[in-house]
Amino acid sequence: MRDPLSVLTDAFTSFVFGKVETTRLPVRTSTGQAQAVYLPTAAPGLGDSGVIIGREVYSGKGYIYDPFQLYGQQLPAPHWLVLGESGNGKSALEKTYVLRQLRFRDRQVVVLDAQGEDGVGEWNLIAQELGITPIRLDPMVANDSGIRLNPLDPSITTTGQLALLRTIIEVAMGHGLDERSGFALKVAHAYVTEHKTDRQPILTDIVEQLRHPEAESAEAMNVDIDDVRAWGLDVALVLDRLVDGDLRGMFDGPTTVGIDLDAPLIVFDLSHIDRNSIAMPILMAIVGVWLEHTWIRPDRKKRIFLVEEAWHIINSPFVAQLFQRLLKFGRRLGLSFVAVVHHLSDVVDGAAAKEAAAILKMASTRTIYAQKADEARNTGRVLGLPRWAVEIIPTLTPGIAVWDVNGNVQVVKHLITEKERPLVYTDRAMTESSVVDPELEWETEQRAILIEQQMNGTSQSTVA
What we know:
InterPro entries: P-loop_NTPase (IPR027417), T4SS_component (IPR051162). The structure is a single chain. This protein has 21 helices and 13 strands. The protein is an alpha/beta fold. Strands 2-1-13-12-11-3-10-9-4-8-7 form an 11-stranded mixed β-sheet. The termini are far apart. Helix 14 packs parallel to helix 16 (353-362). The protein has helices at 4-17, 31-37, 67-70, 90-101, 124-129, 158-173, 179-195, 203-211, 215-220, 225-231, 233-244, 279-294, 311-314, 317-332, 345-348, 353-362, 373-383, 387-392, 421-424, 429-432, 441-458; strands spanning 51-56, 62-65, 79-83, 107-113, 116-117, 120-121, 135-136, 265-269, 302-307, 335-341, 363-368, 400-405, 408-414. The protein has 3 domains: 4-33, no CATH class; 51-144 and 263-458, 3-Layer(aba) Sandwich (Rossmann fold), CATH 3.40.50; 158-244. A hairpin with a 5-residue loop joins strand 1 and strand 2 (62-65).
């Protein structure tokens, strides 16, 4: 029973200041009974089938993600956008994700590696570990022993070849082809395809035909031969860059023999190409169409196409349209497109804003690492993130990201095992070594092993 003085004090306080808030009496209980008094709560995960990413920060649960397992149930599309400033763990996430996906026997990955370290792409160590030779596109050595990809490879349909030639020219010129230039290119391609049957047609054949068109090409449209030659001059000059200019040697010959399109991992090393030059979107266009016609097949394999510095794709309207078609087409054949971008403003404010919006819309999974406050607000507005997620993005530490999987938003800490560490961290250890907290290494590794064992127990039918 309360003493009279306390009752009098409370009454006086209530009279002067109004009714005071009641105080909840403490509950004395054992640790075994506390779980019934204070029930733990956590947002639902994405299931236990797929590859390990890490753990949810707030609940501590293991975080498992796989677009192929979730597609059709929780995901309308298997494509994935990764955002964040340098030094926060994007590179580590990409590499461990690919390594873990490759443990499944029905997975195959293509990586466009635009980052260079020590004269090679940053995926070189992983390729070596898997016994794979990267396809290194380098104009400095292409004429000697470099890799060639032929836009006129017979494995690409004639329609695909012509579409690729148009895309290359439009990217280089910065505008679409007019009807006359398009006609000159079409008749040159048709003539070369019809008459070069003893070997693979090459770009030199197209350039030569544009410079010296056949009379029958003009007669077919009842125009003068000099007009056809004039219409094709600008086209010939653009293609000449691939034949005898700064991009020579990479695309002006038959496709290099021995490129293994059945390897579990195919790495296109673009690290020797200037990322800010027109050469990069041209390369993206050629590689994209070449893959579309030679790599994506209806063989029930699940394929991942990972593109670093992806704003080079989305910033060019013509290349963006090409990849937009590839994404729509590939969804039927089990293709997951992974685009890695530093800032969303690089693409949504670029020359291809309309195409960028369409590609971003197809990415049902978005992973956002730390960004500055202004960039985080812009990202949240474009992607429709909840307010709480936008507010914490600037505060995220390396290795922790906001994951939005078709509206299921979680904060996830990426875990890296000791076996993966030397493959994931190369010279970037100076900036990304803090992705894993040293004090939690043993704990996180044990969690990863436990989750992996659980995953193997539920997915034995698909694991190699």
